[in-house]
Structures are given as structure tokens and as C-alpha cells.
Recover the amino acids of this structure.
């Protein structure tokens, strides 16, 4: 799963808007929009933690969802 998909899934699940998430994070709505569109890189660990906390999930769960289909054998 890509970060933008995970973000959309949890915004839908919580009923939170991009603007509300941005306010919780102390950032701009356009920053969240860039993550949603995939025009920004995946966030740093610090930002990912803040996003996970704002969405009510653990960072561990977020990482599992993001990388569950990744084959690390290479």
C-alpha cells in the first residue's frame, strides 16, 4: 500500500478532512494534499508518527499496512 492510499483510507474511516488533519499537525492543508496526491515523498519518521497519532493508529500498525506486501528477500 502506498502512503497516500493509507492516508485516504484513514481519513475516510475517521471522517476527518485534510484541513482537520493539517490543523492537528500544525501544517498546511496543501502539505496534506501533496501527500494525498503522492507529489510529496513519504513523510519522515517524526511526521509519520504525528500523522498516525492524529489518525488514532499506532506507528507500528501504519508501517505494517505500508509494507505488508513488500518482499525484503532481495
Amino acid at each position: 500500500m502506498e502512503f497516500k492510499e493509507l492516508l485516504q483510507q484513514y481519513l475516510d474511516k475517521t471522517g476527518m478532512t485534510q484541513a482537520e488533519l493539517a490543523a492537528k499537525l500544525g501544517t498546511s492543508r496543501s502539505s496534506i494534499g501533496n501527500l494525498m496526491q503522492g507529489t510529496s515523498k513519504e513523510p519522515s519518521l517524526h511526521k509519520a508518527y504525528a500523522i498516525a497519532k492524529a489518525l488514532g493508529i499506532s506507528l507500528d500498525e501504519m508501517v505494517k499496512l505500508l509494507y505488508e506486501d513488500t518482499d525484503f528477500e532481495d
DSSP finds five helices and no strands in the chain. Helices lie at 3-14, 18-25, 29-37, 45-55, 59-67. The two ends are 19 Å apart (CA to CA). The CA atoms of residues 3 and 42 lie 6 Å apart.
